[in-house]
Amino acid sequence: MTNIKELPEKINTKTSRLFWLTLFSGGIFPIIWLFAKYPKMDKVTSIRTADDSFIISIAVSFGLGGALCHSDWALLSGLGSLLLVFALFLYVFWAFRARAALQDYAQVNFSFDYKMSKVLTLLLNIFYINYCINRLPAEQRKGHPTYGKGSINITEIK
Higher pLDDT residue, 1 or 104? Predict the structure, then answer.
């Protein structure tokens, strides 16, 4: 069995830092963060959430969308807006894959049900996933029967 603190230690990013770097970089930092951190998450959880071509497609959609969105031609401007929406869709898609991976990781390796909000995953995607990764040890202590207030599962006693 792995240590519950392994994933937060490997990711090693505070959510507030992720937010401020996103704000100051004009939205580029989440792509960099995702490219750097998804392999670590995939390795620890043993569940594949993305690959390099997926992250590159987010970067290309975001970059071209941002460049074309400010065009004087309506067609190019509309295409740029569509590319930005597509990049957002890819972010949300990855966030739901990461959510499922975190929940499976908690259930299989540590035997606790990690509840994560679908609404917050949709609205805050990368920020919420990073927050949930950082909260893994605290949520295990809160929800695991051997660490405190959790109840004993009758089916485990034989």
Answer: 104
